[in-house]
């Protein structure tokens, strides 16, 4: 990645100004034209470095429940179960995770499939029940306090 | 409080999630919805104030920029309010939450280009914040990763 591309990504991941010409403003701050900013962003969207650009919504303020859930799935059934869970529109992240101690040793852990579900409040627990019908141990991990949400990567 | 949001606001929120990459994106959105550009911007700012919009920015696909490893760190801590605040102050921590009903009560996320770096970061954070018991859960396989998008 070129340095200027990195600079643009570093900047737009934090904040896009809510002004008439947001890309011009970003360009001014970096010493390049708005056309250059636009072309870098378009390229980054095409090659997948940027997923989307715009408003990052707060689902909890819009009538949605959000939660982290963990499932215990035998390894040979993992692929099928993971795909089944991913097929729900409200499932935004779904990972196979393995646990390690601080010394780097792998630790046997009950739950191996970790996913986040964002669903309308009135439907949320119906979806969880549906997923539970798959027959696995599904653990809900509601958050009781948010200390930080602010995805800013070291690009 | 979805019932307090008007349909028109919802339409605008949907458009604002993914803005056109052009000189005047809010003018283009306004034309689509028959709203003047200034009003689009005014309402977008109000959505931010009310917290419907968390931030206005690009969502980065961290794998595509070479940040291949992410670890969810699970900690057992006593004074979760104090420790949580301390953990959150580290710039490499992207998310930090208290979660109840599990043997671990503080969860945070770190990302890095190298897997080893995640161990180093977690150990440094543990020392800085007085965390003795913790586990790193590395993502071994990504089955899905999308942004939350308001549907129709």
Question: Which descriptors would you attach to this protein?
Answer:
heterodimer; A: 155 residues; alpha+beta; 5-stranded antiparallel β-sheet; B: 152 residues; 5 helices; 5 strands
Account of the protein in words:
The complex is a heterodimer of chains A (155) and B (152). With 155 residues, chain A is an alpha+beta fold. Chain A has helices spanning 3-12, 22-30, 34-46, 78-86, 121-132, and strands spanning 50-57, 64-72, 91-100, 106-107, 113-120, 137-141, 143-149. Chain A has a 5-stranded antiparallel beta sheet with strand order 4-3-5-2-6. In chain A, strand 3 and strand 4 (106-107) form a beta hairpin. The radius of gyration of chain A is 20 Å and the shape is elongated. The mean pLDDT of chain A is 94. By secondary structure, chain B is α+β, with helices and mostly antiparallel strands. Chain B is 38% helix and 28% strand. In chain B, helix 1 (7-16) packs across helix 3 (37-50) and helix 2 (25-33) crosses helix 3 (37-50). The interface between A and B is large, with 82 and 84 residues.
What is the helix/strand order of chain A?
A: HHHEEHEEEHEE
Main sheet record of chain B: 4 strands, antiparallel
Question: Outline of chain B, from the CA principal axes?
Answer: elongated
Beta-strand level of the residues of chain A, as a percent range? Answer: 25-35%
Largest beta sheet: strand ordering of chain B: 3-4-2-5
In percent, how much strand structure appears in the residues of chain B? 25-35%
Helix- and strand-based class of chain A? alpha+beta
Number of strands of chain B: 5
Overall average pLDDT of chain A? 94
Brief synopsis:
The complex is a heterodimer of chains A (155) and B (152). With 155 residues, chain A is of the alpha+beta class.
Helix and strand layout, with pairings?
The complex is a heterodimer of chains A (155) and B (152).
Chain A: H1 3-12, H2 22-30, H3 34-46, E1 50-57, E2 64-72, H4 78-86, E3 91-100, E4 106-107, E5 113-120, H5 121-132, E6 137-141, E7 143-149
Antiparallel strand pairs in A: 2-5, 2-6, 3-4, 3-5
Helix pairs in contact in A: 2-3
Chain B: H1 7-16, H2 25-33, H3 37-50, E1 53-60, E2 69-76, H4 80-88, E3 93-99, E4 106-112, H5 115-129, E5 133-145
Antiparallel strand pairs in B: 2-4, 2-5, 3-4
């Amino acid at each position: 990645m070129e340095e200027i591309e990195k600079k643009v990504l570093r900047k737009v991941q934090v904040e896009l100004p809510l002004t008439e010409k947001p890309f011009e403003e970003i360009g001014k701050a970096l010493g390049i034209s708005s056309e250059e900013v636009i072309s870098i962003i378009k390229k980054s969207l095409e090659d997948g470095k940027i997923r989307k650009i715009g408003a990052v919504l707060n689902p909890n303020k819009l009538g949605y429940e959000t939660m982290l859930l963990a499932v215990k799935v035998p390894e040979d059934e993992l692929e099928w179960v993971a795909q089944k869970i991913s097929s729900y529109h409200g499932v935004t992240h779904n990972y196979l995770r393995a646990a390690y101690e601080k010394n780097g040793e792998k630790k046997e852990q009950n739950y191996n499939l970790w996913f986040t579900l964002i669903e309308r409040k009135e439907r949320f627990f119906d979806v969880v029940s549906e997923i539970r019908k798959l027959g696995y141990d599904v653990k809900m991990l509601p958050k009781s306090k948010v200390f930080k949400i602010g995805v800013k990567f070291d690009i | 409080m979805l019932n307090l949001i008007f349909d028109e606001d919802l339409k605008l929120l949907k458009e604002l999630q993914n803005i056109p990459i052009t000189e005047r994106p809010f003018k283009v959105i306004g034309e689509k919805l028959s709203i003047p550009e200034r009003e689009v911007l005014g309402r977008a700012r109000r959505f931010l104030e009310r917290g419907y919009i968390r931030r206005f920015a690009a969502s980065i696909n961290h794998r595509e920029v070479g940040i291949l490893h992410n670890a969810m760190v699970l900690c057992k801590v006593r004074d979760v309010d104090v420790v949580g605040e301390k953990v959150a102050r580290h710039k490499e921590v992207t998310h930090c939450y208290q979660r109840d009903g599990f043997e671990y009560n503080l969860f945070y996320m770190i990302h890095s280009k190298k897997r080893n770096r995640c161990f180093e970061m977690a150990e440094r954070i543990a020392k800085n914040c007085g965390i003795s018991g913790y586990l790193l859960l590395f993502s071994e396989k990504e089955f899905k990763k999308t942004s939350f998008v308001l549907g129709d």
